[in-house]
Amino acid sequence: MGYRVAVVGATGNVGREMLNILEELNFPVTEMHAVASRKSKGIEVSFGDRTVKCESIDSFDFSTVDLVLMSAGGDASREWSEKIGKAGPMVIDNSSAFRMDPDVPLIVPEVNPDAIKLATKKNIIANPNCSTAQLVVALKPLHDAAKIKRAVVSTYQSVSGAGKAGMDELWTQTKAIYGLGDARPKHFPKQIAFNLIPMIGAFRDDGYTEEEAKMWAETHKILDPDIQLTVTCVRVPVFVGHSESVNLEFDRPISPDEAREILREAPGVLVVDKAEADGYVTPIDAAGEFAVFVSRIRKDPTVENGLNLWVVSDNLRKGAALNAVQIAQLLDETGMIKPAGGYRTLTV
């Protein structure tokens, strides 16, 4: 049996990646609907070996599907997700709109799968921030072995985290600089080509940005509210793949070798860690991959029971689309959604 699935925001970077990963992971789909704004109606997107024409969210009947993957932004989610949930299907929302709602579980399947039990309160499940997702996948197995007291995280986030407009700006500015053209910023607050921007999201009254606040709030909800966490988020001129420098302080000694062994056995993690010129993972290495990669595991001698890690992942995949599809798999495995669309065919 298969599911009737709608992907909302199907023309965006993450929406297209959701369609790709649903096919790659052979998720049981009987009917696929691509849904987007009215202006995108009729645009064709790929699903497996066929194309699907986008339907308008304003006129789509969500009661005719079993599962909705939302990737249309926070405003659209706030307008539509609860309405869709009340219509019957389960909604997996990629925006920040419901992440901190106490009646909506915020899930990374490798970390807190049991939270899926709360999903029926609103028929909505929240997908975390892309940087949070890869962070908690790396922290969870270590936290289980030796409680993390404090974490200091600096992110190096690719422009794809800002959508197609961010990727276009990096490309356009790079060409303009080489060609002596106009490299003035339009999407980002400052030039992103050959530069770094230590601001993602608006500044809050406490001096932190919204992105930084999301990371600690979501980590507390998913993993442990007692972890003291401070974050600096930086946009970097990389197209795909987020990286994180992570400094951890534990409640007991944990050696780099022990940490490597723990992480090698952890779901969703790949350890690539040798003291060699190519013994670590970069964003280019992680692009297109499912795993959260951990490298540069080493002792921090400046604090008691301290370790440093380098964590890299494809933000469009594990940071967004892959995690959403893994949540869909979890719903299927736990029987929290039932197929109503008939028998699945191999070619959809």
What would a concise description of this structure say?
With 348 residues, this protein is α/β, with parallel strands linked by helices.
Task: Report what the structure shows.
The chain contains 8 helices and 13 strands. With 348 residues, it is α/β, with parallel strands linked by helices. The protein folds into 2 domains: 139 residues, Rossmann fold (3-Layer(aba) Sandwich), CATH 3.40.50.720; 185 residues, Dihydrodipicolinate Reductase, domain 2. Strand 1, helix 1 and strand 2 form a beta-alpha-beta unit. 47% of the residues are buried. The C terminus is likely disordered.
Which helices and strands, and how do they pair?
Layout: E1 3-8, H1 13-24, E2 29-36, E3 44-47, E4 50-56, E5 67-70, H2 74-87, E6 90-93, E7 124-126, H3 130-145, E8 148-157, H4 164-178, H5 210-222, E9 228-235, E10 242-250, H6 256-264, E11 269-271, H7 283-286, E12 292-300, E13 306-313, H8 317-333
Parallel strand pairs: 1-2, 1-5, 2-4, 5-6, 6-7, 8-9, 11-12
Antiparallel strand pairs: 3-4, 8-10, 10-13, 12-13
Helix pairs in contact: 1-8, 3-5, 3-8
Shape: globular
* Number of helices, where a helix is a run of at least 4 consecutive DSSP H or I residues: 8
CATH architecture of the largest domain: 2-Layer Sandwich
Report the order of strands and helices.
EHEEEEHEEHEHHEEHEHEEH
- Total tally of structural domains: 2
What portion of the residues fall into strands of 2 or more residues?
15-25%
Q: What is Rg?
A: 20 Å
What is the CATH topology of the largest domain?
A: Dihydrodipicolinate Reductase, domain 2
What is the first-to-last residue Cα distance? Answer: 13 Å
Low-confidence stretches: 342-348
The overall average pLDDT, rounded, is 94
Number of DSSP strands? 13
User: CATH homologous superfamily of the largest domain, by name?
Assistant: Dihydrodipicolinate Reductase, domain 2
Largest sheet: 7 strands, mixed
GO biological process, one term: lysine biosynthetic process via diaminopimelate
Protein name: Aspartate-semialdehyde dehydrogenase
Binding site for substrate: 157, 210, 235
EC number: 1.2.1.11
